[in-house]
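Thread amino acids onto this structure.
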């Protein structure tokens, strides 16, 4: 008893307790944190080595205390590879406003005792191995603003209890195994800015009440199995910046109301069963940077003003039934990096403007009906690494010269009608590993390998089914 009394006295001295405050709560917090440590079974980075019973817990790793009251206000142990469970004694940290254990390997159930932390504003347990259902008692956390339980192993119905947290700004339940459906109550928050329920096992229709979340800036609902389409009300979320609803069985058409989303920067509706035309209004979105509509059943033409805003960086319209010509201004702001339109019914020439698009990193436009000559400077773009134009109707010749500081790694222009000579500058491209020009009309190959040759050998070189004659044994092959 005497030793315990002396330890308590020492602790109070270390904590510099204000004389008007009871040390009882400080001692209780100290013991609670030691209980937290004891529930950790593996600490490979020795992150808790400072958690010593004889020192002030306000000096421990991951602990923040109130400057005068010395009560614990934040506990953040993030990305430390911790294993074990969460101690229910966390409930004794009654001044706690932030609890973050993200990016660890913690498991077990989330303690219901956390519901007593009435001051809690941030609860982040993402990227762990927590399982079981969501504790309904956590609905008592009325001051919570951030709740992130993403990428765990939680099950049960999508928790309705979260809708009873009126101050939520950020809710992330993605990457679990929640089932059921998104209920109408998910549209009642007044302040919510971020909502992620993607990568679960949700079904049913998307409720139109989601359109009531007028402050929403980010919405992620993909990788589920819904019924029906996107409610018209969602297209009225004027503050929306990022919207992802890919791979979730959505159908119907995209209505012209999408033009209301003047703040939208990224839209991903890929891997669904949407039909109809891509609304022309998409080409007028002033902030659009990323558009992913691949693997649907879209028909009609690509909006011809797409990219005219000067901000487009990533465009994927592949695997649809689109027809018509490519928009002329996709790289108007010289920011376009990835352009994917393969497996459609597109025709006409490749726009000359793409030959001046120095931001381009990758082009995949194979399996269409594109015709005409390639832009003369396309293959010499400084950042271009991968080009796939196979199975089109391209004609013309390769330019007699090209920049040799190209970053090109892979080039596939097979199954076209390119004719003339394969020039020697191909052998001076230092990074080119895959060259497939098969099934064209090439007649000669310049095999002038001189001291300027930078090519150390192709992994794949396919010139099959051309009109070539003579020996090609001097070509640089990596075998």
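Threaded sequence (479 positions):
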């Amino acid at each position: 008893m005497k030793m315990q009394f002396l330890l308590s006295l020492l602790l109070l001295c270390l904590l510099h307790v204000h004389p008007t405050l009871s040390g009882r709560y400080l001692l209780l917090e100290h013991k609670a944190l030691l209980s937290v440590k004891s529930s950790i079974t593996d600490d490979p980075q020795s992150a808790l080595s400072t958690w010593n019973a004889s020192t002030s817990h306000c000096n421990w790793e991951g602990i923040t205390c109130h400057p005068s009251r010395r009560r614990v206000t934040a506990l953040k142990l993030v990305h430390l590879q911790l294993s074990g469970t969460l101690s229910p004694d966390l409930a004794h940290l009654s001044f706690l406003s932030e609890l973050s254990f993200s990016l660890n390997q913690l498991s077990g159930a989330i303690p219901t005792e956390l519901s007593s932390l009435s001051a809690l504003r941030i609860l982040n347990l993402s990227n762990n191995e927590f399982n079981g259902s969501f504790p309904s008692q956590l609905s008592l956390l009325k001051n919570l603003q951030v709740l992130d339980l993403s990428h765990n192993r939680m099950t049960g119905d999508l928790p309705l209890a979260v809708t009873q947290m009126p101050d939520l700004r950020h809710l992330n339940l993605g990457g679990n195994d929640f089932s059921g459906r998104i209920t109408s109550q998910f549209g009642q928050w007044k302040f919510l800015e971020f909502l992620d329920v993607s990568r679960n096992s949700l079904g049913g229709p998307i409720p139109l009440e989601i359109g009531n979340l007028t402050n929403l800036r980010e919405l992620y609902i993909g990788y589920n199995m819904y019924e029906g389409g996107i409610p018209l009300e969602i297209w009225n979320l004027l503050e929306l910046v990022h919207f992802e609803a890919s791979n979730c069985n959505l159908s119907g058409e995209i209505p012209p109301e999408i033009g209301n989303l003047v703040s939208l920067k990224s839209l991903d509706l890929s891997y669904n069963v949407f039909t109809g035309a891509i609304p022309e209004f998409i080409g007028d979105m002033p902030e659009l940077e990323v558009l992913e509509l691949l693997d649907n059943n879209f028909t009609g033409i690509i909006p011809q003003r797409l990219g005219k805003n000067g901000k487009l960086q990533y465009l994927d319209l592949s695997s649809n039934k689109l027809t018509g010509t490519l928009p002329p201004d996709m790289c108007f702001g010289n920011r376009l990096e990835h352009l994917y339109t393969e497996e459609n019914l597109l025709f006409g020439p490749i726009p000359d403007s793409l030959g001046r698009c120095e931001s381009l990193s990758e082009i995949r436009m194979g399996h269409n009906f594109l015709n005409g000559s390639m832009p003369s400077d396309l293959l010499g773009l400084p950042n271009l690494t991968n080009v796939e134009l196979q199975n089109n109707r391209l004609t013309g010749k390769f330019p007699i010269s090209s920049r040799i500081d190209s970053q090109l790694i892979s080039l596939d222009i097979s199954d076209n009608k390119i004719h003339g000579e394969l020039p020697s500058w191909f052998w001076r491209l230092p990074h080119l590993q895959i060259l497939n020009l098969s099934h064209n009309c090439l007649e000669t190959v310049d095999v002038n390998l001189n001291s300027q040759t930078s090519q150390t050998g192709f992994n794949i070189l396919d010139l099959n089914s051309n009109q070539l004659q003579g020996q090609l044994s001097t070509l640089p092959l990596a075998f």
